[in-house]
Amino acid sequence: MMKIDSTTVQLVLAIAEEGSISRAADRLQLAVAAASRRLSDLEQQLGARLFKRQPHGVRTTEPGLKLLAHIRQIGNLVERLEADAQALGRGRDGRIIIGAPKSAILQFLAADIAVTQRRYPHITLQVMEENSRIVQQLLRDKVIDIGIFEKTSGFVDLPRSDYRKDSLVLVYSRRHFSFAVEPVMLDQLLDCPIVSLGRGSAILAALRRAHRSRGRVFRNDFAVSGFDTMLALVREGLGVGLMPPGVLRSFHPEPDLGWATLEGDWHERSYVLSFIEGQAQEQALRNVVAALLQGERAV
Question: Which of 43, 57, 131, 220 could form a disulfide with 20 if both were Cys (CB 3.0 to 4.6 A apart)?
Fold first, then answer.
C-alpha cells in the first residue's frame, strides 16, 4: 500500500510550480535534503520519475504530467478536508464552494448568494471566479461543489438545471467609432477590431462561432482576462468590446463610452447550474442548490 502524506503532496505540487526542489523546499520551510528525500521516496513508490533533474532546476517528465493530475486532486481533497473541518469546528453545517464566471457573479450570483446566506447562516459559502471551461474542470475534479457556466460551452457529464439568461451588447468609444443604426448587423461588427475575453471564455467561443458563420476566422489580437481591461482598451479606440449590459452598468461607464444592441440571437446566452455530490454535506448542498435555483424563479 502506498504511503503519502500531505506534506509530500504539497512538496510535489510546489516543485511543479517552482521548477526547482530548493525553491519548493524553501516555500514549505523544509531542508533541501529532506525535500529531495521525500521526492525520491515517492518516486520509488510510484515506480516512475516525476521530474528530470537538470543543472538549474527540474522539468516535469511525461509520466509526471499524468501523475501530477492525481496528486493535485489529492492536494485539493486535503485542503477541502482542512477547510471543512474548520467550518464544522466553528459549529457550521459545512462548506459549499461555488464556481462561476465573472459575468454571472456580477449580474446574478452575488445577490443570490446573499439571499442564500441569510437563509442558511450556518452554511459557509465560498465563491471561485473562473471562466466557464475552468468551472467545469473544477467541478469534474471535485474542487467545487456547484458550478455555473454558459450552456453552449458545456462538456461536463453532470445533470444541469437552467439558471439565468443574458445577452451581449456592443461597447465602443464614441470618439473612435459610430454606430448610427441599431441593432448592429453581424457583418458590421466583424469588420471592426474586437477586444475579447481570452481562452476558455464564453464570449470568445461566441465570437468564433459568429466568424465561422460568415466563413471568417477570428484573429483575437486583443485578448484580455477581465472586463475592466477590455474597457481600458475600448476607451483608447483599439477595438470594440462585447459584454452583458448588467456587467457594463456595474462599471458606471462614462459618457464617452457608448453601447448598442446586436442583430440576431447569436449573442444570447443561457447559464446552467450543475453540482456534484460526495464532498460537501449532502443536505447543505441540496439546500444551497435549491436556494440558488429558487432565486432564478423569483426574478
Answer: 57
Q: Is the pTM of this model over 0.85?
A: no
Residue with cell 444551497: 288
Could you give the maximum distance between any two Cα atoms of the chain, in Å?
71
Which residues of the chain does CATH 1.10.10.10 include?
A: 6-86
d(CA 90, CA 266): 48
Residue range 6-86, CATH number? 1.10.10.10
Instruction: For the beta carbon of residue 37, count every other beta carbon within 10 angstroms.
Output: 12
**Which CATH number applies to 169-266?**
3.40.190.10
Instruction: Provide the 3-class DSSP secondary structure of residue 120.
Output: coil
Kindly report, residue by residue over 30-88, the tens digit of the pLDDT. 999 999 999 999 889 888 899 998 888 889 898 888 888 788 878 777 777 777 777 66
Give me the amino acid identity at 141: D
Instruction: Residues 92-165+270-298: name the CATH superfamily.
Output: Periplasmic binding protein-like II (3.40.190.10)
Q: Which three cell numbers stand for residue 144?
A: 467545487
Q: 246: which residues sit within 8 A by CB, 6+ positions away? A: 103, 106, 107, 166
Kindly report, residue by residue over 73-127, the tens digit of the pLDDT: 787 777 777 777 776 665 566 789 999 999 999 999 999 999 999 999 989 899 9
pLDDT in tens, 154-203: 788 899 999 999 999 999 999 999 998 889 999 999 999 999 998 878 89
The conformational region for residue 119 under phi > 0 = left, psi -120 to 50 = alpha, else beta, is alpha
